[in-house]
Write a structure and sequence with these properties.
Helix content: 55-70%
Shape: globular
CATH topology of the largest domain: MetI-like fold
Strand content: under 5%
Radius of gyration: 29 Å
CATH superfamily of the largest domain: MetI-like
Strand order of the largest sheet: 1-2-3
Distance between the termini: 26 Å
């Protein structure tokens, strides 16, 4: 092996050139300028591409800052009004801006209810699909089923909303009774949201499971473990950080979903724990108010920015928790 140690080049021992080729002194100073000149060689196309990539990254950051700035500015106008109490906003049980009642708990509880119903559907199904695609499916089956599953992510959410209203709700009314299940209810909206985020969770979880080294599986098989034991006791715990990240990202997606809950959940604030009753979520209220005829300077209109700011802070918190979980439970293999 050629080496430059101490500024000398020596042919490999035992080679044909070892006897007739003398050691040649090569100084580091003689190599470094050539490397520097190579690095300094002008590459206009590469600089253009680098500048374009920098512009795209900076533009995305500026857009994010602009959105956050607008939210804080308009939310400050809402909370700065003498008619709004910060304590009442986070603890009040009545949301009626027309009469000066700004308790967000009815909207917040409906948002949590639809989100948890969606996660009860998407989490077990998504994890099961991910385990099948990663551990059981053949290459042909994986290449066929995964694109079909990901088609669900490309369906417009307004279609899911009408699907919940015209298909899921009638099924629930036939099972539990028309007197129990309202036409607009959070259960059907949550089930449709679970179908919506199913591809997201299954795809991310499958990527995390596939990243587990093959050596761990082979070691478990060598100890006599079955395929199910390897999947449940070896692969899933090794990929727990990626699965947890998929769970929290799906949770954030469900919290921010708009059109499904706006169509299928209901259009009136209602503090209830019954998933078969109608209730308006935070995003549903934002859609209803922003599409109305309210004046720009009214509290009704500026309240949507306060709710949007709360949703932003919730999503940001979930993303930060996701990053901490990934860092805490990430497994490194060689």
């Amino acid at each position: 092996m050629e080496s430059i140690i101490g500024g000398l080049y020596e042919p490999p021992h035992g080679s044909q050139d070892a006897d007739r080729t003398p050691a040649v002194a090569i100084r580091r100073e003689e190599i470094r300028p050539s490397a520097i000149s190579l690095l300094r060689k002008p590459r206009p196309k590469e600089r253009i591409i680098q500048g374009l990539l920098f512009f795209c990254g900076a533009l995305s950051i500026l857009i994010t800052i602009g959105i956050v700035g607008i939210l804080f500015e308009e939310a400050w106008r809402f909370f700065g009004s003498p008619e709004v109490s910060l304590v009442e906003f986070f603890s009040g049980t009545v949301w009626q801006p027309t009469i000066g009642m700004f308790g967000m708990l009815p909207l917040f509880s409906a948002t949590l209810m639809t989100t948890w119903i969606a996660m009860l559907v998407a989490l077990p199904l998504g994890l099961a699909v991910a385990i099948y695609l990663s551990e059981y499916a053949s290459k042909r089956a994986r290449n066929t089923l995964k694109p079909i599953l990901e088609i669900l992510a490309g369906i417009p959410t307004v279609v899911y909303g009408y699907f919940a209203l015209t298909f899921i709700t009638p099924i629930l009314r036939n099972i539990f009774g028309e007197g129990i299940v309202s036409i607009y209810n959070t259960a059907s909206a949550g089930l449709a949201m679970g179908i919506l985020i199913l591809p997201l969770i299954s795809t991310m979880a499958e990527d995390a499971l596939s990243a587990v080294p093959r050596s761990l599986r082979e070691a478990a098989y060598g100890l006599g473990a079955t395929k199910l034991e390897v999947a449940i006791k070896i692969v899933v715990p090794a990929a727990i950080s990626g699965i947890a990240a998929a769970l929290l990202i799906g949770l954030s997606r469900a919290i921010g979903e708009t059109m499904i809950v706006a169509i299928a959940a209901g259009a009136g604030p209602n503090l209830t724990l019954n998933p078969f009753n109608s209730a308006e979520t935070m995003t549903g209220y934002i859609v209803r108010i922003s599409g109305g005829d309210l004046a720009y300077d009214t509290l009704d209109y500026t309240s949507i920015y306060a709710l949007a700011l709360v949703l932003l802070l919730i999503t940001l918190s979930l993303n930060l928790i996701s990053q901490q979980i990934v860092r805490r439970f990430r497994e490194t293999y060689e």
